[in-house]
Amino acid sequence: MSRRLRGLPASPGIAMGPAWWFRRTLPVAMRTRGEDAAVERMRLQAAQERAAAELAALREAQRDRLSPEELAIFEAQELMLQDPELMAAVEAELVAGASAEAAWRKAVEAFAAQLAALPDPYFQARAADVRDVGNRVLRHLAGGPEAPSMPDHPVIVVADDLLPSETVSLDPRRVLAFVTEGGGPTAHAAILARRLGVPAVVAVGADLQTVPDGVLLLVDGEGGWIEVEPDPETVRQAQARRALWLQERVQAEAAAHEPAQTRDGVRIEVAANVGSLEDAHEAFRNGADSIGLLRTEFLYLERTAAPTEEEEVAVYRALLEAMGGKPVVVRTLDVGGDKPLPYLPMPPEANPFLGVRGVRLSRQHPALLRQQLRALLRAGAGFPLRIMFPMVSTVEEIRWLREFFEDVRSTLAAEGHPLPQDLQVGMMVEVPAAALLAEHFLPWVDFFSIGTNDLTQYTLAADRTNPAVAGMADGLHPAVLRLIRHVTAAVEGTGKWVGVCGELAGDLVAVPVLIGLGVQELSVNPVRVPEVKAAIRRWSLADARALAEEAIRQADAAAVRLLVAEARPPMPATA
Question: What kind of architecture, by CATH, is found in domain 37-142?
Answer without folding.
Answer: Orthogonal Bundle (1.10)
